[in-house]
Design brief:
about 40% helix; globular; about 350 residues; single chain; alpha+beta; about 25% strand; four-stranded antiparallel β-sheet
Length: about 350
Amino acid sequence: MNLEKQLKQNQIQTSVPCRVDFGGTLDISTLFLPLNHLSPSSFNIALDLRTVVSLSPWQKGFIKVSSKGFESAVFKKDDPLFNHPMGLMFACAAYFDAHGLHIQIKSASPPRSALGGSSAAAVAIISAFYKLLDKPIDPEQIAWLAHYIEASVAGVPCGMQDQLAAAFGGVNQWLWKMGKISPEFKQMPVFEHEDDIKAFNLNILIAYCGIPHVSKDINKQWINSFVCGETRSVFKKIANLTNQFSKAVKNRSFRLAADLMNQETKLRLEMTPDVLDKVGEKLFEKAISCDCGARFTGAGGGGCLWAVGEALDIENLKPLWQDILSDVEAGKILDTKIENKGILIL
């Protein structure tokens, strides 16, 4: 499908949020199906560090993808490399048999910051194609499609909490289960009122550690250890901690939420010590000293950490984290808030 002429007449732009999370890996069917009896779930918060995708015309027979932090790439329509650093984006275009277009990705979050940016970009790209083809913008369908395309090219099992945060926005607990013919999710908003979500901004803090992450290695270790039976008991504990954490946040019991978060982070550290780098370790220890919880985002190994706690504890923690990050190139507290909206057509 040559989109060059169509995009000359009607360029498309979409936007989606990124996320921080708790209970990651449980959104992968390798884990959530055997743990079904524990009602496994993941918790995430959409952030207003949005990813914007633009579709514009390009040479017939070719696809170009550009994204901050990556070298632009151009491939012939039938020859895109799905194992390229931006292979997921080319795979999304291939699903629609598209060519004659330039996919431009602009993200407000740092590149490879473990905030779910690549999955968010896939959701934004698919949303842009839906708009271009005059298809209804169905967040659930788009999230599933983004998930399955990513799983088909990633080379490792993939979850879908990143896609759901991008598609729906807000603060949610996502319950993973088996439906009648395929896996399903249940969205459980943590807060019923927008004022509660706004207030929750005072109870969280997000920091970029200055070191880009690569999630495949750590995720692969977790999955392999689970399959081999080495860490099944650990992930049972994580499933229970995630449910307890979601309830504690809902009840605004932030000291309890902080303690539960630290328990989960310590369990992950026991399985994979490199889930926190040296900067992350310092931030984690400082959070504990301030009665806050801290956790890496995504699969860790660089990228971001986020903290939860009572508003006064978070206020006390912020300058201490800033002091640690002042010695780290590109390290910083991220200026961000909770984003209620998911997919936007601009």
